[in-house]
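Input chain follows. Return structure tokens only.
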Amino acid sequence: MNLVDEYEAHLISYEEFHELIWGCGQRLINEVGIEKFIFYLNASENEYYKKED
């Protein structure tokens, strides 16, 4: 389970997530994709990624 999965499952707070994501790099990008990674860099609390169909 990666950092984004933990946040989406409500296992960590927004504050903790937002602090930790800035230290993540290529490995997390490879796991979730660049689009989703960038979304979460800019997301507000209670904003979750939803891939457009």
